[in-house]
Amino acid sequence: MQRKHEEEIAILRNERARRVQSEQSHHTNLNGNTNSNGNLNGNPNDNRGRREPTPLQTIRLTGLLPFTATIMWAPMPEKASPTFDKYDISTDPDYHMRAFVNAMEFYFNNDPVLCRAFSLSLKGEELSWYNTLPPNTMDCFATVQTLFGRQYASSRVQELTAAKLVNTRQERDESLKAFMKRYNETARRVKDVNHTFIISNLPSCLKAGYFSKSLYARLPKNMDELQERVTEFIHIEDIRQSRKEQ
């Protein structure tokens, strides 16, 4: 397992090295600190005057963690990191990664901090996977993202086609509120679907009734108007249901 991770990380670092070299070939040396051999272990910022860790210190810090000395010795913020939901293998890894980055971005805009904090969003088997990453190999958060996404690729929510939305129909005894929740969830999973299609497709998906007729008669101009009209009819439906139960 560790050998596999090492090979994957080496490939990713070589790919990044080629991209960096390509970018550097179009620019002059920045701050006199351009790394011409593509070695990505160095900090792209000017670190002159910063004392490098001794070999013994490096071993102590990186012996159990997957990050390079550059990441391990980067200054960490004094304030505590935000609280994260722990990743569950039943969850789409891309959703988890976005939630983690969004939470961190609000507090810290710093690649080493992202690297060091990511394990705080893992638990159980997922944390055990993280602990199998080879020590002193990863030098950026992009590598963490890639490896995490590959490891849990089978948990990704599959994108749907527009045909799935067309065939999403309101059941005979299904409330408008329940159906619209299901319809909107499906629409979010359809790749490249636009608001015009979501609106124009809706009337044919509804069971026959006053709301579907009103949409056929006059389609909403935008999603805000659609939401207003849906909310209005859900309210009417709730009142009718309440009267039936009395």
Automatic annotation (TrEMBL):
It comes from the Eukaryota. Residues 117-200 form the Retrotransposon gag domain. Transmembrane segments: none annotated. Residues 13-53 are annotated as: Disordered. InterPro entries: Retrotrans_gag_dom. Residues 13-26 have a biased composition (Basic and acidic residues). Residues 27-46 have a biased composition (Low complexity). This is Retrotransposon gag domain-containing protein. It comes from Vigna mungo (Black gram).
